[in-house]
Design a protein that fits this description.
The chain is an all-alpha fold. It is built from nine helices and no strands.
């Protein structure tokens, strides 16, 4: 089935989201998250981003930014194909959150924490398997390597 063309409003909104990603503090938060936030259990989260810390603030900025963007996608305000062709950062974010998502949802007493990011990541995974088979294997390998401490000489 053919995908409908993106509307001008959807394209404009996507460009506005991109522009927001360029804001200095969000850029700093994204950089920290992608370089430093590697969790396997809730204790890792507490160690890396303790409540009230600058790291906690960075984490919340990144997670809430992508949750809002994915919420807009889920409700049809963004065009899925257009977004998926231009970014996969939300997928990275979800892959990092996935190991602790259920515990985090339980701790917050909110089963909906990051549910839109999860929804978009699941859809993106299917899209990538269809449109770029093997790409996510490369992405996950990259993520695994990025989580390893650098070797010392």
């Amino acid at each position: 089935m053919a995908t409908r063309k993106p509307s001008f409003a959807q394209a404009q909104l996507q460009l506005q989201l991109y522009d927001l990603r360029r804001e200095a503090r969000l850029r700093e938060a994204r950089d920290w998250f992608l370089k430093s936030y590697f969790v396997e259990k809730p204790e890792d989260h507490q160690r890396l981003a303790p409540a009230g810390s600058p790291q906690d603030f960075s984490l919340r900025m990144v997670v809430s930014y992508w949750e809002q963007a994915c919420q807009m996608l889920r409700h049809g305000l963004l065009h899925e194909e257009l977004l998926f062709q231009s970014t996969n950062e939300f997928f990275f974010v979800w892959e990092r959150l996935k190991p602790i998502a259920q515990a985090w949802r339980g701790m917050m007493r909110n089963p909906h924490v990051s549910e839109n990011t999860e929804w978009a990541a699941v859809r993106y995974e299917k899209w990538a398997q269809k449109n770029a088979p093997g790409f996510l294997d490369v992405v996950r390998q990259y993520m695994k390597q990025a989580a390893q401490p650098p070797e010392t000489a």
